[in-house]
Structure prediction request, 507 residues.
Amino acid sequence: MTDLLTAAQMRAIEGAAIESGAATGLDLMERAGRALVAAVVAHWPVLGQGPHRAVVLCGPGNNGGDGFVVARLLADRGWTVEVALFGAAQNLPPDARANHDRWGGPVADLAAPGMLAGRAAPDLVVDALFGTGARRPIERPLAQVVAETARLRAQGARVVAVDLPSGLCSDSGRPLGACITADLCVAFHRAKPGHHLAEGPAHCGRLKVVPIGLDDKVPDAAERVTLTGPAPGLAIKTEAGHKYAHGHALVLSGGPGQTGAARLAARAALRIGAGLVTLGVPPAAQQEAAAQLTAVMLARLGDAAALRDALADGRITALCFGPALGLGKDRRPLIEAALRSGRAAVLDADALGHLAADPALFALLHDRCVLTPHGGEFARLFPDLAEKLDGVPDAGPAFSRVDAARAAAARAGCTVVLKGPDTVIASPDGPGAINSSTRDRAAPWLATAGSGDVLAGIITGLLARGLAPQRASEAGAWLHTECALSVGPGLIAEDLPEQLPEVLRSL
Prediction:
């Protein structure tokens, strides 16, 4: 897994390097500028062939200092470079001012009316206005600069952002007012949460993370955010182990005509390596389910008493309930019995609806539970947090999906998987994780009926095998995306469990 750094964490790492004498601010700016030019040429090889034209937009802080380094390096390559600064040179921070002076060429006033209006598109626009330093919404006159940059891009100019597109909140991926859209974003040292959350991927374009000689410093667990990655070891089972050594998952089903979602979850739990999986069905749905099952076992569980009897078997190690379980009052006792058992459990779909409607059920959640809401379900469970997410931010760092998932996990006392293209996994007082299904991992065909049921089943199977809720959720979300990428367009939910063996072999 890869650590992501908030703006404050990145500033602390840079400050520690400077304070220790490992680097100066000028060193870091020079490294950043050189890394960005190298990334631009690697991404657009044509720009490495002969001189071209560039417009460099510099802001009033150290991001602007990086821009002056880039301008100088491009000019050294024979490029025609125009530089515009927002603010007065004498007000720049010392290192940025030093690089302004090293540039030595003309510097236009970016705040001048019509600064970019009517200009022909250059080969490259360098956005070095704010980067991770955005704190306030971009308004006039810079909002007009953002609009003109969009016009130049539409006319063929390539736009590269220095660390982060200006106007995008580094921690949340939410625009603060107007926001530049880049074709390439070059991030220094580590990616930031905003590169992967919310609207960040759309504004960043391609993301390239480059080193600039800083030491790694892992944030404390409660402040740590990671990007999910390959999950090695999940395909391995103990050679001498029998099926019960790998866990027994019980998936609760709805009634007649409503068994499909639970069957998808059960199949996924079995495919991910649970030793046994049982589908618990009401008696009226037994024949329907039996006609569809082979390796998944079947149990008649008509009411809470039958479920409690089944859970007397200590070999059942994880539960899954919610997929098409039903919202009727007769379902509530089943959920209560499952929660009171203390077993590791995934609550999805209809189970989340019951939790949202019944505070007494919500109070039964424990630290072995995993909630898997999509945005709408999250809003019903945590309306105040959803309202903060939906609000227009007026300052940065803005409230993020990581903030929302962490607050929800603390309130529920269990792991929360807030689903979406930027799925966030959070546990009380623990690290947060983002499973980003964007850019090279974009899998829009996951937006299909039953996909979430399969994810619930994968996480359940991993819980049954003994993984902790946070770890099971991170691995499950990553595998879910990998299976979708392996299948490709045309995917339906039934394809996902069947793709798990190939994905696991690749690990």
Summary: The two ends are 14 Å apart (CA to CA).
